[in-house]
């Protein structure tokens, strides 16, 4: 069996080959801007070597799934499996030497990185007796081995970069030959790119990428301009598996096609401006019909003997469908149970610094655990009820709190709990809570925020803060005619 494949031809028509045996030991880096023919090159390489070596393709766009029908690759949908299942699949791929395409196009970039990292790590961790030779092709490698942190989480970047580094730096001894393709060398981690000994450089326009490509090809920097003039599908190749000197390669034809193709020109519509305006605005106010997701009503199971008996008796064998039961209206939840849940949350120290959204979600979960319907629960009412519970008001509807609750309607939701706490202390003849306690109730650890809160409430006329010469502070509520006991602030 020949271990060399023809990847394309030179401008003079001479074939350019790639030695697969040498490629397995020296790895390959492909660079080209979008539209330069980078994926076409990878497809040519995969098609020509399909009968020679096992192939594993990491496909972030789902472009290589067409290899399955023509060459028998197994397509693995990354979105259909969990981390443990992906790892087991990778282990079986090494064991059974199956050629596969890991399609990640249904995942977000963060999930793509984690899935690819788990998959590559499992390939890398195979037992020694399964270290069979395999080409591991990673398209859009800059996504999985970024040179700098981007919008993805640090955890996803760390595990993905570690897996790609293992593939390119230590994969050779385990039979894994990395073939990585990137749009820009500047976006690819240097320790990943540096491990490749074979290069196929396509068209690129940015100076930094042209200079790096020229350096890798052993060209002088004044010759780097030639990379900008390369045609679509034309690459400069160099390496022990390709050629000892840079060679221009026009990539050959392929037998399969990508799912995504370059869009061509389509004739514009011939409708007039008035017709287009009517089409755009016709029935714009009408809500689209929503599908009925209600479960179908199934007929009760009828045994064959019963049908025979009905026929013999001369009765209709048809079984009437049961009438659809209308859903019962939601009954209002028990108020005492809701208050008990609110007071339990207020006493839980873990709830102190959570956001209102997280608190409301926790509240609905606790309600479900008690068998309380959450359909009629209101987030605004919850926030105000929780603020009262944090301040020690067990039941805001009790008669002794009526004036306070009416006054609190003018207080914003986020400032309500500290205001309640100050008012309760004044009404019960206690000192005002200190800044640390007000900060805890406010959900912050910053005393300055508490001071700004007090200033806001005072400017709004809700409270009056007074500190005497001895440093003792009192807080009064003029509308209620109450004041806290003077203590040192």
Keyphrases for this structure?
15% strand; four-stranded antiparallel sheet; 489 residues; ATP binding; alpha/beta; nucleotide-binding; 19 helices; 15 strands; 2 domains; Rossmann fold; eleven-stranded mixed sheet
Fold and architecture overview:
With 489 residues, the chain is an alpha/beta fold. The chain folds into 2 domains: 4-251, Rossmann fold, CATH 3.40.50; 335-488, no CATH class. The protein is 40% helix and 15% strand. It is built from 19 helices and 15 strands. Helix 15 runs parallel beside helix 17 (413-427). The protein starts with a strand and ends with a strand. Residues 293-299 and 315-330 have low confidence and may be disordered. This is ATP-binding protein. It comes from Novosphingobium colocasiae.
Concise account of the structure shown:
Pfam families: DUF87. This protein is of the alpha/beta class.
Please give the domain count.
2
Measured by DSSP, the beta-strand proportion falls in 15-25%
The radius of gyration is 35 Å
CATH topology title of the largest domain: Rossmann fold
Q: What does the largest sheet look like? A: 11 strands, mixed
Mean pLDDT over the residues: 82
The CATH C-level class name of the largest domain = Alpha Beta
* Low-confidence region ranges: 293-299, 315-330
**Distance between the ends:** 89 Å
CATH second-level architecture of the largest domain: 3-Layer(aba) Sandwich
CATH-level-4 superfamily name of the largest domain:
P-loop containing nucleotide triphosphate hydrolases
- Which class do the helix and strand fractions yield? alpha/beta
Strand order of the largest sheet: 2-1-11-10-9-3-8-7-4-6-5
Number of strands: 15
Query: Helical segment tally?
Result: 19
Shape, per Cα inertia axes:
elongated
Q: Percent helix among the residues?
A: 25-40%
Keywords: ATP-binding, Nucleotide-binding
InterPro entries: ATPase_Atu1862_pred (IPR014588), HerA-like (IPR008571), HerA_central (IPR002789), P-loop_NTPase (IPR027417)
GO molecular function, one term: ATP binding
Domain Helicase HerA central: 7-77
